[in-house]
TrEMBL record, chain A:
Pfam families per the UniProt record, alphabetical: CENP-M
Keywords recorded for this protein, A-Z: Centromere, Chromosome, Nucleus
Main location: nucleus
Protein name as it appears in the record: Centromere protein M
TrEMBL record, chain B:
Organism: Synaphobranchus kaupii
Record-given protein name: Centromere protein N
Family, as annotated: Belongs to the CENP-N/CHL4 family.
GO CC annotation terms, alphabetical: chromosome, centromeric region; nucleoplasm
Nucleus found in the keyword field: yes
Alphabetical list of Pfam families matching this protein: CENP-N (PF05238)
UniProtKB/TrEMBL annotation, chain C:
Protein's name in the database: Centromere protein I
Composition bias type Polar residues, residue spans: 64-75
Organism: Synaphobranchus kaupii
PANTHER family for this protein: CENTROMERE PROTEIN I
Phylogenetic placement of the source organism: Eukaryota, Metazoa, Chordata, Craniata, Vertebrata
Transmembrane segments: 209-228, 234-251
Subcellular localization, as worded in the UniProt entry: Chromosome, Centromere; Nucleus
Biased composition (Low complexity): 121-145
UniProt feature coiled coil, ranges: none
Main subcellular location of this protein, as a coarse class: nucleus
A cellular component term, taken from the record's GO annotations: nucleus
A Pfam short name: CENP-I
Keywords: Centromere, Chromosome, Membrane, Nucleus, Transmembrane, Transmembrane helix
Disordered: annotated segments: 64-152
Family indicated by similarity: Belongs to the CENP-I/CTF3 family.
C-alpha cells in the first residue's frame, strides 16, 4: 500500500491516530511526548515517520497527517513535498496540517515560507507556526494539533475536518500593498 | 650554541603551547631541576624563550639535543602535520627478524650513502614504533633543521608513515627504507590524514568492526524506543537497518579520525553522434573532496540518519575496506563504453 | 673633523638617519670627536625636545662670555667622548611615551626633528639652506667663516664697547631716557645670559618665555645693527640665531603632541645593536631582566596601547608575534569588559591609519567595543582619516557602520554635528555609493534636513530597519549586560522623572547608559534658552516651560517617562511622532521578528518592553502606526502563545482598519489562530476584539465633527476616515465576531465561558447608537442568540435579556430619529424583523410556554420532537422549567409550600403565583430579565402588538 488512504479502515472507539512526518526527526519526538501527555479523554496514538510512503504494515486508520517543516533547511521542504504524493487525495479534505518552525526569524529565506504557504493554500490545509525552542511553544502547538485532530477524528460533535479546514486553511495575501510590506 | 641552533630552538619553543612546555622540558632531561625551576612559565613566551636560550647556552647544548626536544614533542603530539602512508612490498627473509638497532644502523648508513649532508635522529616510542627525524641538506648546504621529515615505522609491519617529505627527497628515503627493512619495493597506499594513530588503526584494522550477519542483533541500546506506548515509530525497522548498514561499512564505536577523502574522476564524454565533445582526446577531469574533522563519523551519520541511501556505495565503504582515501575513478577502457563502472 | 663631510651634505637632513647608518654598518667605530656627535647626544635631554644651548657667545653680540659651561661653539676644539652605549640604551622615561597622535599634515615636521634645530651645526646647515646657497657651500668657505668668527671673539671688550656706543648714538631717544651705552650693553647682556640659563636648565613654560625674550632681544639687536648700517657679515649670526629661536618657538608650540619618531628610531638602533654586537651573556640576561621588570610593572593592556600608538608605518603583520600578543590582549578586554574611553582614540587611529594594512584595520574595528562612551575626538579623527583617501571602500563602510552602532555612546556631539555637512556629502556623494544599511537612516534624515541629504529615495521603502550590525550589537549588549550594575545606577540618575527599577530593554538601556541624555538643538529655539527634557522633574515645571522644551536625542527614551509623553501629547510638531515611530518600528522589528531564539530572559525583556509600549499607547490614547505594521506582520507568524497578553493588548489598541483591508490584515490570520487554539485563546481573542471595537467607537464619539459625515482625525493618525468608512469597518468587525463566535461555540460545545465573552461583545454592540452615537444597529446571529437563550447558565439568559432590552431601547430611539427630518438615517427593515423574531421566540420560550410551536421563532419537525419523548415540549423552556432557572423554581416552590412533599412546578404558573415568581426572580438579581419584562410588557400588550409597534 503505497498510497495512504483515510477511509479504508473503520475508526476505533474513542481513539485518534496522528502521523507526524518530519525529515529531520528533531522535533517530532518532543511534539509526540507533549501530545500524549496533554490528552486524557481520548486515546491518542502518535506515529512518527521520516517521510512517506510508510512501510507495508497493518496500522489503524490515520486521522491526521502532520508535516513538520523547518524553514532553515531546503531539504525539509522538499521532503515534505515529495511525501505529499503518497497521500490519498481525500486526506486533503481536512486531514492534513503543516507545522513550520522558524517563521519568525527574519534571517531565513523568505521565499521558502512563501512557497510553503502557497503549497498549504493550494492543498486547503492549515499552516501552524511553531516556536519549537521553548517548552511553552511546544505545548501550545501540541494543543493546536490536538484541536485539529479531535475534529478530524470525528470526536467533536457537529464538526468535520473539512468544515474546520475551510475555516483555518492557509491563505496567501494577494494584496500587492501587503506583499510589499512583507 | 650557534645561531642556527638557536633559531631551531626558538622555532620549536614557538610551536609548543605554553601549557605543555613545562612537561616537554622535563621530559627532555637536558635541564637540571634547578634550571627548570628557575623558568617562569607564566611569562610571555618570547621572554621565556630568551631565558631558556641562555640556560641552554650555559649547558652547552648542541643541535643534537635541540632536535631531541622536537622529536619528543612530535611523538607526544603527532597530529601536527599531514601523514602519508607507504607500504613496503615483497619482504625478504630477514624482514621478519629485523631488530631495531640493526634497522637503525642500516638506515643511517644507507641514507648517508645516498646523500652527504643529512642529519638523522631516531627514537623508539613506547608502542614499539621507531620514529626517525631527518633533516635534509644537499651536497653544498648543511641540513635544514627547520623543515625536517618524520618517518614512523613499526618493525614487522609493512607500513611506513611519513610526514613533511618533499618530492625531491622521496626516492632517497624510499630507497633507504627498502634496503634497511629488507623489502623488495615500496608503494604509496594513498592514505593520508593528520591523525597518525587513526591511520595506523585503519590500516591494521584496530577499530571495532561490524560484520554482516544473518540475524541482526537487537539494537535496543542504540536506539531507545519511545517511552510512551502511544508513540510508535513507523520507520523503526528501517532505522535499525540503516544503523546496521552504517556500522558494517564504517565500524562501530570510536572511528579512526580521517579528515579528507578525495575522488578524482576521469571520464570520456559518451554520445551516439560524432559531436565535438565525443571526439575530444583528453578525458574530462573532476575532483570531489569530502572534508570533515572526522570524516568517517560524518559519513556514518549520513548513512545512519538516512541522508545517504542505505546500502553504502562502494565508493564510500572502500575508504575503510581498502584503507585509502584518495581514489582515481576512470572509465574501464575505450572499448567498454556502454558498461561504465568505477574502477577504484 | 672626521664627520664633517656629512654635515655638508644638504640632502642628509636627518642626523639620526646618518647615525644609524654609520653605527649600523660599523658599530665599533666610535666617532671620537666632532661637535655634531657630542652635541646630539649630550643635548638630548632625558625627556625634552631640548635644543638651544648657548645664547652668550653665538648671538650677534660679541662680548666675552664668562660662562664657559654654555660655550659649545661649532668649532669648539673640546672633543667629547662618545657617550657610553648604556646611555644610549637607557629607556625613555615614561612621560615621553605620550601617545603618538600627529595628524598627517605634520609629516614635514617629522622630517626635521627638533634636535636639528637645536644644534648649532644644524643651525649652520639651516642657514645655508635658508640662504639658498646650500648646494654651493664648501668646506673651505666654512673654515674661512669660522676663522672670522674666532677673530670676532678675540677682539673682545673693545669691539663690543665701540659697537654699543655707536648704537647709543644712533638712537638718540635712548639718551633721553637716561640709558647710556654701558647700561644698554649690560641690560642686553644680562637678558641674554639669564634667558640662556633658563632656556637650558628650566623645563616647561619658563623655557618658552625665555625663548621669547631672547627672540625680542635678538630683534632689538638686529634693529641696532640696521640702524648703524653694519655689513651683513656682522649681524649674520644674530640673524641666524633669531631664525633659530623662532623655529624653536614654533616647534615648541606645535609639539604638544610631539611625534615620537626619534624615540622609536632610537629603539631600533638599540635593537640592531643588540643583534649585531657581540654582547656577553650576562649582559643580555640583565637586559632581559630589565625588560621583564618593566613589563611586569605595567598592565599588558597599557603596553598594548603603547605599542599601537607608536607602531611604525608599514610594519609587517604576518608572523609578528609581538603584534599578535597585543591584539590578543585588546581583544580579550574588549569582548569581556569593553574598551575604556581613553583607549578608543588610540586604537581607532591605529586602525584607520592603515599602518599595518587593511586586514588589521578590519580586525581592530571588529573588536572596538566601548565599555562606556566613545570620545568625540576619536570619531572626528576617524572621519578625518576618511579624507586621506587611501582607505578601501570596504573599510570605509565598515567604519561608518561602526560609527552608527556606537553613535549613541558618543560622549558629546556638538563638534560632530558641526561636520555633519561633510559626513553627509561624503556618504551620499563620495564613492561609497548606496549602502543599504544607510538608506533608511538617510531617508529619515531627509525628512528633517532635506538640505543635507541630496539623494533621492525610492518612494516605497520598507518601513523598519534591517539589522546590519548584529555582531557588534550582540557584543555591545553582552558587554553592557555584564556592566549592568552601573547601568542601573546611571538610569536612576538621569531619569528622575519616574523611577525605573530595571532597564527595560537593551536598546533603551544602551541609550540610557549615556550619562547625559543629550538633546538636539531645535533650530527654532536657537534664540531662546532651551530646556532639555531630561531636566524636567514635575508636571508644573512642564507647564511653565512648555514652549522651550527640547526633545531628547533618541526618542526611544520618551517611552519611559510619563512627563515626556504628556509633553509629546500636546506637541503639534509631527516630526516627534515620526521619529518615535521610526525608532519603534525598528526596535519592534529587530527584537521580535529577527530574534533568533526565544530564551526566557529575552522574552521577559520583550514582555517588559511591550508593557511599556502598551501603557504609553494608553496614555496617548492612540496607537503608533509602526506598532500596527509590526502587529500585522507578527500575526502571520505568531504561534498563538508567545507574549499572548501583550500582543493581544497591542492588537486591541490599533486604530480603525479600512474595511477593504481588514480581512487580509486582521481576520485571516486571526481566524487561523482562533479555530486551532484552545478555549482560553478563543475567549481572549473575543475580549480583545471587544476592546478594539470599544476603542473605535470611543474614537468616533470623540472625533466626530458636527456635520457627522466627514470625520477628519487628529494629525497623528495617518488614516483619514469618513463616517461610512468607519461604519463599514465596524460592520465587518461585528460580523466577523458573530461568525467566529458562532463556530467557536459550536466547536467548544457551547462553553459558558466563551458564551459569556461573546455576550460581553454584544453588550457593546447593542448600545452603539445610543452610547457612541454611531447610527448602526446590528443583531447577533442565531448561532449566538439561541445558545444563549437555551443555555444552562442563568447568567447567560439574564444577560441576553439585558442585551435585548438595550437593542429595543436603541431601536426605539432610532425609529424616533428616523421621523425627524433634519438628521435622517435609515435602519433596514431586516434588522427590525430579526429583532422581532428574537423577541417572539424569547417570549414564547420563557413566558408563554409555546416554544417550538409554529410561528413562535424556533421550529422543529414534529417527528424530531416526538422522538425526544418529551410530552409537553412547548413548556420545557419557560421560566419554570428552563434548565437555567429550574433551581430557582424549586427554591420558590419550597418557599411557597414548605409543607408539601411532592414537587409540582406547574402549580407556579397558576394565577398570582406567576407574578410572585417573576418578582422572586428579579429579587434574585436577574436585572436583565426585569428590564426586559418591564420594557416589553409594561402595557401588558400582546407580543404581536409590540412587534407591530416597532415595525
Amino acid at each position: 500500500m503505497s498510497l495512504l488512504k483515510p477511509l479504508n479502515k473503520l475508526p476505533e472507539l474513542n481513539t485518534a491516530n496522528v502521523l507526524l512526518v518530519e525529515n529531520e526527526e528533531l522535533f517530532q519526538k518532543k511534539l509526540a511526548d507533549a501530545i500524549v501527555l496533554l490528552e486524557n479523554n481520548v486515546n491518542v496514538i502518535v506515529r512518527l515517520a521520516r517521510s512517506l510512503p510508510l512501510p507495508l504494515e497493518s496500522r489503524p486508520r490515520i486521522d491526521l497527517v502532520v508535516f513538520i517543516v523547518h524553514l532553515n533547511s531546503e531539504q525539509s521542504l522538499l521532503s515534505a513535498e515529495a511525501s505529499l504524493k503518497h497521500l490519498d487525495s481525500s486526506y486533503f479534505l481536512g486531514k492534513v496540517c503543516f507545522l513550520v518552525t522558524g517563521a519568525r526569524c527574519g534571517t531565513l529565506p523568505y521565499e521558502r515560507l512563501t512557497s510553503l504557504k502557497k503549497l498549504a493554500a493550494t492543498l486547503n490545509s492549515p499552516l501552524l507556526m511553531t516556536e519549537d525552542r521553548t517548552t511553552e511553544g511546544v505545548n501550545t502547538v501540541a494543543q493546536r494539533v490536538l484541536a485539529v485532530l479531535r475534529v478530524a477524528a470525528g470526536l467533536v460533535p457537529m464538526a468535520t475536518g473539512l468544515y474546520l479546514s475551510s475555516l483555518t486553511r492557509c491563505t496567501v495575501p494577494t494584496d500587492p500593498d501587503w506583499q510589499n510590506q512583507d | 650554541m650557534d645561531d642556527s641552533t638557536k633559531q631551531v630552538l626558538r622555532q620549536i619553543i614557538r610551536r609548543i603551547p605554553l601549557n605543555k612546555l613545562q612537561n616537554m622540558l622535563s621530559k627532555w632531561e637536558h635541564l637540571s631541576k634547578k634550571q627548570l625551576r628557575s623558568l617562569e612559565f607564566t611569562q610571555p613566551k618570547w621572554l621565556l624563550c630568551d631565558n631558556l636560550l641562555s640556560i641552554c647556552e650555559e649547558n652547552d647544548l648542541s643541535m643534537k639535543h635541540v632536535t631531541e626536544l622536537e622529536i619528543i614533542y612530535r611523538i607526544d603530539h603527532p597530529a601536527q602535520g599531514s601523514w602519508n602512508v607507504c607500504q613496503l612490498i615483497d619482504p625478504e627473509e630477514e624482514a621478519v627478524t629485523a631488530d631495531l638497532l640493526h634497522f637503525k644502523q642500516l638506515f643511517k648508513a644507507h641514507l648517508r650513502g645516498l646523500i652527504s649532508h643529512v642529519s638523522v635522529k631516531t627514537k623508539k616510542h613506547e608502542d614499539g614504533a621507531i620514529w626517525i627525524r631527518i633533516a635534509w641538506g644537499d651536497n653544498f648546504t648543511q641540513p635544514n633543521h627547520l623543515k625536517p621529515t618524520y618517518v614512523v615505522h613499526h618493525l614487522q609491519t609493512p607500513y611506513v608513515f611519513v610526514s613533511g617529505l618533499t618530492m625531491k627527497h622521496k626516492p632517497l628515503l624510499h630507497q633507504a627504507l627498502v634496503l634497511s627493512a629488507h623489502y623488495g619495493g615500496i608503494k604509496d597506499v594513498h592514505l593520508s590524514g593528520r591523525c597518525l594513530t587513526a591511520l595506523r588503526d585503519l590500516l591494521m584494522r584496530q577499530y571495532k568492526q561490524v560484520f554482516p550477519v544473518k540475524h541482526p542483533r537487537l539494537l535496543l541500546e542504540r536506539s531507545p524506543l519511545p517511552s510512551n506506548p502511544n508513540i510508535q515509530m513507523e520507520h523503526a525497522k528501517h532505522a535499525e537497518n540503516r544503523l546496521q548498514m552504517a556500522a558494517e561499512a564504517f565500524g562501530e564505536g570510536i572511528l579512526p579520525k580521517l579528515e579528507t577523502a578525495v575522488y578524482k574522476l576521469e571520464t570520456r564524454f559518451r554520445e551516439n553522434g560524432n559531436g565535438m565533445l565525443g571526439r575530444r582526446e583528453e578525458p574530462f577531469r573532476g575532483v570531489v573532496k569530502f572534508a570533515s574533522s572526522n570524516l568517517l563519523e560524518s559519513l556514518k551519520y549520513c548513512v545512519s540518519s538516512g541522508m545517504a541511501s542505505a546500502p553504502v556505495t562502494p565508493l564510500l565503504s572502500s575508504i575503510t575496506q581498502k584503507g585509502r582515501n584518495y581514489f582515481v575513478i576512470t572509465d574501464k577502457g575505450p572499448g567498454a563504453s556502454h558498461t561504465p563502472g568505477p574502477n577504484i | 673633523m672626521a664627520n664633517k663631510d656629512f654635515l655638508e651634505d644638504p640632502f642628509l637632513h636627518n642626523y639620526e638617519d646618518y647615525l644609524m647608518s654609520v653605527w649600523g654598518r660599523n658599530p665599533d667605530r666610535h666617532p671620537s670627536k666632532g661637535p655634531a656627535w657630542s652635541c646630539v647626544r649630550e643635548t638630548m635631554g632625558p625627556g625634552e625636545s631640548e635644543g638651544f644651548l648657548v645664547p652668550g657667545s653665538v648671538g650677534g653680540l660679541s662680548y666675552p662670555s664668562t660662562e664657559d659651561q654654555f660655550s659649545t661653539r661649532p668649532c669648539s676644539p673640546t672633543p667629547r667622548l662618545f657617550p657610553k652605549r648604556s646611555h644610549l640604551r637607557c629607556p625613555r622615561p615614561p612621560e615621553l611615551s605620550l601617545l603618538r597622535r600627529h595628524p598627517p599634515e605634520l609629516s614635514l615636521l617629522r622630517r626635521h626633528p627638533p634636535e636639528l634645530a637645536g644644534q648649532w651645526s644644524g643651525a649652520q646647515a639651516g642657514r645655508r639652506r635658508g640662504s639658498g646657497s646650500s648646494s654651493t657651500a664648501t668646506a673651505g668657505r666654512q673654515q674661512r667663516q669660522q676663522r672670522q668668527e674666532r677673530q670676532h671673539i678675540n677682539s673682545t671688550a673693545a669691539l663690543a664697547k665701540r659697537a654699543y656706543k655707536s648704537y647709543a648714538k644712533a638712537l638718540p631717544g635712548l639718551k633721553k631716557l637716561g640709558i647710556s651705552s654701558v647700561l644698554l650693553r649690560k641690560i642686553i647682556g644680562t637678558l641674554e645670559v639669564s634667558c640662556g640659563v633658563v632656556l637650558t636648565l628650566v623645563p616647561g613654560r619658563p623655557k618658552d618665555v625665555a625663548n621669547f625674550l631672547l627672540l625680542l632681544v635678538m630683534l632689538a639687536v638686529l634693529f641696532f645693527h640696521q640702524l648703524v648700517g653694519d655689513p651683513l657679515k656682522r649681524y649674520a649670526h644674530a640673524l641666524v640665531f633669531g631664525i633659530l629661536l623662532t623655529c624653536r618657538l614654533l616647534i615648541a608650540r606645535q609639539s604638544e603632541e610631539r611625534p615620537e619618531r626619534e624615540e622609536t628610531r632610537e629603539q631600533q638602533v638599540n635593537a640592531e645593536e643588540k643583534n649585531k654586537v657581540k654582547v656577553s651573556y650576562d649582559r643580555s640576561l640583565r637586559v632581559a631582566e630589565n625588560e621583564r621588570k618593566k613589563s611586569e610593572a605595567e598592565d599588558p593592556f597599557l603596553l598594548a596601547l603603547k605599542y599601537f600608538s607608536r607602531v611604525e608605518d608599514g610594519t609587517p603583520w604576518k608572523g609578528n608575534d609581538v603584534l599578535e600578543r597585543h591584539v590578543a590582549v585588546v581583544e580579550r578586554l574588549a569582548l569581556s569588559q569593553g574598551l575604556p574611553p581613553e583607549a578608543i582614540p588610540v586604537l581607532l587611529d591605529f586602525a584607520l591609519s592603515l599602518r599595518m594594512g587593511t586586514t588589521l584595520c578590519v580586525r581592530m574595528l571588529k573588536i572596538l567595543i566601548p565599555a562606556s562612551v566613545v570620545p568625540q575626538d576619536a570619531v572626528i579623527q576617524g572621519v578625518s582619516w576618511l579624507c586621506v583617501g587611501k582607505m578601501p571602500i570596504g573599510t570605509q563602510v565598515m567604519f561608518l557602520r561602526w560609527l552608527l552602532t556606537v553613535f549613541d555612546l558618543i560622549d558629546s556631539k556638538d563638534q560632530l554635528r558641526a561636520i555633519y555637512g561633510f559626513i553627509f556629502s561624503f556618504v551620499t556623494e563620495e564613492s561609497l555609493g548606496r549602502q543599504p544599511f544607510l538608506m533608511h537612516l538617510l531617508a529619515l534624515y531627509k525628512v528633517f534636513s532635506p538640505e543635507l541629504v541630496t539623494l533621492s529615495f525610492p518612494s516605497k521603502m520598507k518601513s523598519g530597519f534591517k539589522n546590519h550590525n548584529s555582531t557588534w550589537k550582540a557584543a555591545l549588549s553582552s558587554v553592557q549586560r555584564r556592566n549592568n550594575v552601573e547601568v542601573a545606577s546611571d538610569l536612576r540618575l538621569t531619569f528622575g522623572v519616574r523611577e525605573q527599577p530595571v532597564s527595560k530593554k537593551r536598546k533603551m538601556n544602551s541609550h540610557l547608559t549615556v550619562p547625559a541624555v543629550s538633546s538636539l538643538p531645535l533650530r527654532v529655539s536657537s534664540s531662546k534658552k532651551a530646556l532639555p527634557l531630561e531636566q524636567l522633574r514635575a508636571f508644573p515645571q512642564l507647564l511653565q516651560n512648555l514652549d522651550r522644551i527640547e526633545l531628547p536625542a533618541q526618542m526611544g527614551s520618551m517611552l519611559g517617562s510619563s512627563l515626556a509623553l504628556h509633553y509629546m501629547d500636546c506637541l503639534r510638531d509631527s516630526s516627534a511622532f515620526l521619529r518615535l515611530n521610526f525608532w519603534l518600528g525598528h526596535a519592534l522589528h529587530e527584537e521580535f521578528l529577527f530574534c533568533r531564539e526565544a530564551s526566557s530572559q529575552n522574552m521577559e525583556e520583550a514582555a517588559r518592553f511591550l508593557n511599556t509600549l502598551i501603557s504609553t499607547q494608553r496614555l496617548l490614547q492612540e496607537g503608533f502606526s509602526s506598532t500596527e505594521v509590526f502587529l500585522y506582520r507578527f500575526l502571520r507568524v505568531w504561534d498563538g502563545s508567545l507574549l499572548r497578553p501583550q500582543i493581544l493588548a497591542l492588537l486591541s489598541d490599533i486604530s480603525v482598519v479600512p474595511s477593504s483591508r481588514i480581512k487580509v490584515l486582521l481576520f485571516e490570520p486571526l481566524m487561523q489562530l482562533f479555530f486551532t487554539s484552545s478555549l482560553f485563546f478563543k475567549c481572549s481573542v473575543i475580549e480583545c476584539l471587544n476592546s478594539m471595537l470599544l476603542k473605535w467607537l470611543t474614537w468616533h464619539s470623540v472625533y466626530a465633527l458636527e456635520d457627522e459625515l466627514d470625520i477628519s482625525v487628529s494629525s497623528q493618525t495617518p488614516v483619514n476616515m469618513t463616517l461610512s468608512g468607519l461604519m463599514d469597518s465596524v460592520v465587518e468587525l461585528v460580523q466577523f465576531v458573530g461568525r467566529i463566535s458562532t463556530i467557536g461555540l459550536q466547536l467548544e460545545g457551547y462553553h459558558t465561558l466563551l458564551l459569556s465573552f461573546t455576550l460581553d461583545f454584544y453588550e457593546t454592540v447593542c448600545d452603539m447608537y445610543l452610547k457612541y452615537d454611531l447610527p448602526l444597529v446590528l443583531m447577533p446571529p442565531a448561532g449566538v442568540f439561541y445558545p444563549a437563550l437555551l443555555s444552562t447558565s442563568p447568567v447567560s439568559v439574564d444577560r441576553l435579556c439585558h442585551i435585548m432590552h438595550r437593542y429595543r431601547t436603541n431601536l426605539v430611539s432610532a425609529k424616533r430619529q428616523e421621523k425627524q427630518p433634519e438628521k435622517p438615517f435609515h435602519i433596514s427593515r431586516k434588522t427590525y424583523r430579526e429583532f422581532n423574531q428574537y423577541v417572539v421566540s424569547m417570549v414564547s420560550c420563557l413566558w408563554n410556554s409555546r416554544a417550538f410551536l409554529p410561528g413562535m421563532g424556533i421550529e422543529l419537525g414534529e417527528d424530531v420532537l416526538a422522538r425526544s419523548k418529551v410530552s409537553e415540549y412547548w413548556s420545557t423552556f419557560n421560566l419554570i422549567h428552563h434548565p437555567a432557572f429550574m433551581s430557582c423554581a424549586i427554591d420558590f416552590h419550597q418557599k411557597c409550600w414548605p409543607e408539601r412533599k411532592e414537587l409540582d412546578l406547574n402549580s407556579i404558573k397558576v394565577g398570582k403565583r406567576w407574578d410572585w415568581y417573576t418578582e422572586f426572580l428579579f429579587s434574585q438579581g436577574f436585572h436583565g430579565i426585569k428590564e426586559f419584562v418591564q420594557s416589553s410588557f409594561s402595557r401588558r400588550s400582546s407580543i404581536k402588538e409590540t412587534g407591530n409597534d416597532l415595525q
